[in-house]
Design brief:
Layout lengths: L3 H14 L6 H11 L5 H16 L1 H8 L7 H18 L8 H13 L4 H13 L10 H4 L3 H11 L1 H11 L5 E5 L6 H10 L4 E3 L6 E4 L9 H4 L3 E3 L2 H9 L7 E4 L6 H9 L5 E6 L2 H14 L4 E5 L15 E7 L14 H4 L2 H19 L2 E11 L8 H10 L4 E3 L3 H6 L19 E4 L1 H4 L4 E8 L2
Parallel strand pairs: 5-6, 5-8, 6-7, 8-9
Antiparallel strand pairs: 1-3, 1-4, 2-3, 9-12, 10-12, 11-12
Helix pairs in contact: 1-3, 1-5, 3-5, 4-5, 5-6, 6-7, 9-10, 13-14
Length: about 450
């Protein structure tokens, strides 16, 4: 049964989340801190239901049957009931059908003793008996219309359906073994001895995929720096930079430094690795992880902007520069479903301009023969191929696009290359990691080499 306090707590969280003014996971964490009496099971249910609501918001709004003038509190309470029922029911498979909707509504009825709520749910059961799959495209993909149209036009109908279904699934929990200090097999064995089921990731040579979502915060392997939580796609991005021993490498938009740590291990703690970001808060998050990792070759710098004058000391000196650019994050909707609703077409245009400025500045840090890697966790052509074409055309004399075939073969990663019927045709210097094909977050990578 759904206890009254559980429904109310979930509704309160949804009221905050549906403002779309911040990351969902941070909003949830803040709510939990404000409500310390909630038990671990309650927290788990509230979090799962909240993310279900974000993933299937148009469908749940259709199911609740309220108009736009209804009070916010009433709407959020009904959404909470339906989201809790959806979580209890289990995964939704596309296409959404009247049968699946009826099962969710029945789950809600079975778990709510309140007669008024049961009457509302029974009425909705009758209304949704006429749910007609072909007439409900928006309730199938559950994305904002502008985004659905952009992805359909870009990927084609078949790939779009597969992609949209993959984006509605909960992301796997992936770890990266710190090969500077540990072997992946040894780490996996220790996790299994702790009762944590895990397997090697299919592509990353460092990755471990955990079954379920066990808490790892106090795990001795985490505390010792043997493991880091990192999506396999992010691990592959670090791997494909090709960072080597003794090099000067720049992580231009380092954030909290997950890829910085991975590249530092690739460099075997030699050379110089610069972690740059315009957020002191994000780079502060790197410090304890850096200490655990055993790396001593990492140097952090908080930038005022992409044209910070302090960058001049690195200009023309780097062997490799990674630009994991600020982007819409739409490739991470499995983890951050709120981003589908926080982004707008105008914000994508602004991001593209920022990406171009950063790429321009980062390119100047490379020495002759140096490698520039541009990456986003976006699915949109506007942030990916369009930026690639712009840089290639505007820097044709200095930078040559680099094909990935040899690199992928070296790492036995030919399976990352997609065919034209799976993704739109990509430039020769580009790779796309896709949630529905590779079971990673969505990433885009392009690279160039500076003229010698």
């Amino acid at each position: 049964m759904f206890a009254r306090y559980l429904v109310q707590a979930t509704a309160q969280v949804l009221q905050r989340l549906l403002r779309f003014d911040g990351p969902a996971d941070i909003t949830l964490t803040q709510f939990q801190r404000e409500n310390p009496k909630l038990g671990s099971r309650d927290r788990f249910q509230i979090a799962n239901a909240s993310f279900a609501a974000l993933r299937f918001l148009p469908l749940l709004r259709h199911m609740e049957g309220l108009d736009a003038k209804s009070p916010e509190a009433k709407s959020c309470e009904r959404l909470a009931v339906l989201a809790l029922a959806m979580d209890k029911h289990g995964p939704i498979n596309l296409p959404v059908t009247a049968t699946q909707i009826a099962a969710i509504l029945q789950t809600a009825i079975d778990n709510l003793p309140d007669p008024e709520q049961q009457a509302w749910l029974s009425a909705r059961m009758q209304a949704n008996a006429h749910f007609n799959e072909p007439d409900t495209a928006a309730l199938q993909h559950n994305l904002p219309q502008w985004l659905a149209q952009a992805l359909q036009a870009q990927y084609g109908e078949t790939a779009f359906v597969a992609l949209s279904q993959a984006l509605k699934q909960s992301a796997t929990l992936d770890l990266r073994a710190n090969l500077l200090t540990h072997k992946r097999n040894a780490v996996a064995k220790e996790l299994q001895e702790q009762g944590i089921e895990c397997t090697a990731t299919p592509y990353s040579p460092w990755g471990i995929r955990i079954q379920g979502k066990p808490s790892l915060r106090q795990n001795p392997l985490m505390n010792s720096g043997a493991i880091e939580v990192q999506d396999e796609g992010s691990q592959l991005l670090a791997l494909l930079t090709g960072a080597k021993r003794g090099e000067t490498v720049v992580d231009f938009c380092a954030g909290a430094g997950g890829k910085t740590l991975a590249m530092g291990a690739m460099m075997r703690n030699t050379g110089r690795l610069y972690a740059l970001d315009n957020s002191a808060h994000r780079l502060d998050g790197l410090q304890p992880r850096l200490k655990r990792s055993g790396l001593s070759n990492v140097h952090t710098l908080v930038l005022q902007s992409e044209t910070d004058e302090r960058l001049s000391r690195l200009r023309g000196k780097a062997d490799r520069v990674l630009v994991d650019a600020p982007c819409s994050g739409l490739g991470t909707l499995r983890r951050h479903p709120e981003l589908a609703w926080r982004n707008q077409p105008a914000s994508i245009e602004a991001l593209q301009q920022t990406q171009m400025r950063i790429l321009e500045s980062a390119a100047s840090l490379l020495k002759p023969g140096g490698i520039l890697v541009y990456a986003t966790c976006s699915l949109l052509e506007q942030e990916n191929e369009a930026v690639n074409r712009w840089f290639t055309a505007s820097h044709a004399r200095e930078f040559a696009p680099m094909d990935w075939s040899e690199t992928l073969q070296k790492h036995d990663l030919q399976a990352l290359q997609t065919s034209a019927d799976q993704t739109p045709a990509l430039a020769s210097n580009a790779i796309a990691l896709m949630p529905h094909l590779h079971h990673t977050d969505g990433f885009y990578l392009a690279r160039w080499q500076r003229a010698r």
